[in-house]
Design a protein that fits this description.
The complex is a heterodimer of chains A (211) and B (736).
Chain A lengths: L1 H15 L5 E5 L17 E7 L2 E7 L5 H8 L18 E4 L2 E4 L12 E3 L1 H4 L7 H9 L8 H17 L17 H7 L10 H12 L4
Parallel strand pairs in A: 2-6
Antiparallel strand pairs in A: 2-3, 4-5, 4-6
Helix pairs in contact in A: 4-7
Chain B lengths: L1 E2 L23 H4 L18 E7 L5 E7 L1 H4 L4 E6 L21 E2 L5 E7 L2 H8 L3 E6 L6 H4 L16 E4 L2 H7 L2 E9 L11 E7 L2 E6 L4 H12 L6 E4 L15 H13 L3 E4 L2 H7 L6 E9 L5 E12 L10 H5 L5 E10 L13 H19 L3 H7 L4 E2 L2 E5 L5 H12 L12 E2 L2 E13 L5 E7 L5 E4 L9 H13 L6 E4 L16 H23 L8 E3 L2 E4 L2 E4 L9 E9 L2 H4 L3 E13 L5 E11 L6 H20 L5 E2 L4 E2 L18 E5 L23 H13 L22
Parallel strand pairs in B: 1-27, 2-13, 11-12, 15-16, 22-23, 29-32
Antiparallel strand pairs in B: 2-6, 3-5, 3-7, 4-6, 8-16, 9-14, 10-11, 10-13, 14-15, 17-18, 19-20, 20-28, 21-22, 21-27, 24-25, 25-26, 28-29, 30-31
Helix pairs in contact in B: 10-17, 13-14, 16-17
The chains are: A alpha+beta (211), B alpha+beta (736).
Amino acid sequence: MTAVSEVELSRRGLLAGSAATAIVVAAPASDAAPLPQAPAPTSLPVSFEVNGKRRELSLDPRTTLLDALREHLQLTGTKKGCDHGQCGACTVMVDGVRINSCLTLAVMHQGDKITTIEGLGTPDKLHPMQAAFIKHDGYQCGYCTPGQICSAVAVLDEIKRGVPSHVQDDLTAKPRATNVEMRERMSGNICRCGAYSNIADAMADVAGENA
Amino acid sequence: MKFDTPAGTTPIDRQTVIGRPHPRVEGPLKTTGTATYAAEHHDLGGDIAYGYILGAAIGKGRIAAIDTSAADAAPGVRAIVTYRTAGPLGVGQFYVQRMLAGPAVDHYHQAVAVVVADTFEQARAASALIRVDYARTTGSFDLSAQKADAPIAPKEPFGGPSQIVVGDFDRAFAAAPVTLDETYTVPDQAHAMMEPHATIARWDGDLLTCWTSIQQMNWGVRDLARILGIPKANIRLRSPYIGGGFGGKGTVQSDLVLAALAARAAGRPVKLVLQRTLMFNNTIHRPKTIQRVRLGAGRDGRLTAIGHDNWSGNLAGGRTEPSTIPTRLLYRGENRLLRRYLTTLDLAEGNAMRAPGEAPGMMALEMAMDELAERLGMDPVDLRIANDTAVDPEKPGRPFSTRAFVECLRTGADRFGWSKRPGSPASRRDGDWLIGFGMASAIRGAPIAKAGARVRLERSGRVIVETDKTDLGTGSYTIVAQTAAEMMGVPLDRVEARLGDSSFPETPGSGGQMGAASVTAGVYAACAKLRDIVVQRLGFERDDVVFADGEVRSAGRTVSLASAARLGELVAEDSMEYGDLSQRFAQQTFGAHFAEVGVDRYTGVVRVRRLLAVCAAGRILNPVTARSQVIGGMTMGIGAALMEEMAVDTRFGLFVNHDLAGYEVPVHADVPHLDVAFIDEVDPTMSPLKAKGVGELGLTGVAPAIANAVYNATGVRVRDYPITLDKYLTRLPELT
């Protein structure tokens, strides 16, 4: 519905052109299309495993996996940076594969195994990647950090499993955890503080290879 | 405590904790997702509702009618705030924008309404049911079109005089044997910090508490009180963790005001997170500048005339982007003419972004210096060295407190291998890559301001520091704890820093590169007072008391520090205030940036291959966090040079690319290993810490160094940032 209204708005806006004064209507529906009745709120049950613990929720079906984690399970280690798949702050692992949790609805994950930053390690028992980020100062404000760490762990696993990337010289060869390879695969995780150089060092440390 | 004469030896000089590369003390929290940011506080009492902002769909005009009836009736909706229900709202002292549109709309995506509902999904859906009829009017959105009529800016509280005249610029410029007169543009840029502006607001009667994300607690309380029309004493702000700011969270933005209004309307705590797509047009940004630089020099390269004219626009009452600042103190030259022009634009407010003034100013000045060096046939490093000055060029009686500028240049040139620079443009190849080297100077002011702290010595011997300073990734937690540890003679793990609470002693917060220097001096003052109390408690009478290793020692007697508090916690609070040292001395930080780029000879793609920053910023309080500040600036400089621009739709009056896909910032693949070196220096005129900030210095000069490297690689000069393919592809060297 929103998409339709934006089309409507921009068409009207274009028609308005550069006229000194124009009426622009920003409404979800034009006069020609009667406003649909808002549907009654519904909720759907969903159960999945988060960090090894089974969770059962009843959710508005519009709830993203990200908001289910943050708002319903109070697992706020997973961050909302853009809410539409452009920044990577919400990266979690679902059945071992990293995804942007803002781009998927919670009810799509019935029975899945989800790992968040809280599941990798705790302040008293850090995951090696968490410890490497601290050692190399691979973070500043810390907001993109959980997503960077989840991605970093998943990237090393992808390289280990032989998932190819387009910066490989030979697509059929087994990828290696080189600096360029890791930077390519990490590029969906934005860090505006600019800790990239240190994140690369942290990942190289964990990968055990000189970049 | 008053600081009005340069510091002699202080307990900080021992450098047993300060100056050491300690990892961030909050690292285990940030890396495990257990640090709590603004929207992540759950146990606040009461059922938290969700706010969602509807942004204005026009660039300028007014709301002709607004109908919220469908939204009011939508599931879960508890309240809707619009200008008709909000009551009168003031404006803040630093930002001039109005936080809620109506009936006038001042800029695109200015908030029109806030919907409060039981869930985020309900609030978002209901916001789409609000019907707004706008009457759109003609606005001014194009700086270039306004430039010719723009007057000199009025006197401003920041950035120095709008017009500076020294000597006779026109005559000197006309007489100079070698001259340069070019115009450069730096586009509108976004802070684009990773954590969106966010607030949870809760009212307890007349008392308002907000968990929010702002850099300056004191300005936040002041501005929120002005906007809401309530006493400052009724407001408490808390920002223990801030997901980046870069100036964009200096003080109150719409999330804070509207969360407070929404919570009052709904009678419940309200969580409000600004949508990413609203941030670019709703909040502040670094405004575009058009800069004309005129340089006149002798054949020896010594500048005789420096002219720098700067045009920027803003909402009525807004400030300039003061790009002429760095030109005041960087180079010698007897005749100087610096002017800032300001016009009114109906875009979102322009305001402080990391190194306001210096960052865009250096993007122009340092490209101009590169061009001048070529005209003179001089090495760019040598040209800078030839124009070093020991005194403030506007006031020759005023020396610099420290100025390791030439040392930065020489150290950098040596470390980078500058001597291997391709001597002429487009002369070096590496396979399909054209290789170029570039460099630029760096300068940023080193302000310091009154800051306070409270220090507690617990019975256990643990030391607690409380100050309203914030940490937005800068390292404040760590350097505050290090300062207290050094002063009290305890290991770092015996100190806990508590920050970002407006009920704690006041500091200037995080901004203007003054945070680190200011807060550590405040902590020093409070610790000095606590040391006096401890000495008194322990019955020491001599003045040779040493605090070290958790002990207090004097004249052969040693007792544990904790024993001073055995009868109860000791508390001391003090602040550091300043005399006229900043008038007597020009206090600045200096640096030099070096870049190597490769430009694909077929596609024109630019890759930054190497970057080096050499910085002189007084005592480096923590080499780990200071280095990170600098590499962060370098990364942002890559963005400024090669990709960052908010594109203005001059017909409808908005920044079109208002998300993180359209507004491109550097990602992992764009950033090579970054090299940083610090000059070993202390500045006794700053404070007993002898330290200066470094976070903004790391940005100034990076973009022009890269731009100059692109020129060196290709022979194509692009004076219109960012240097994107469309501006040079057709001018690349012929394929051979």
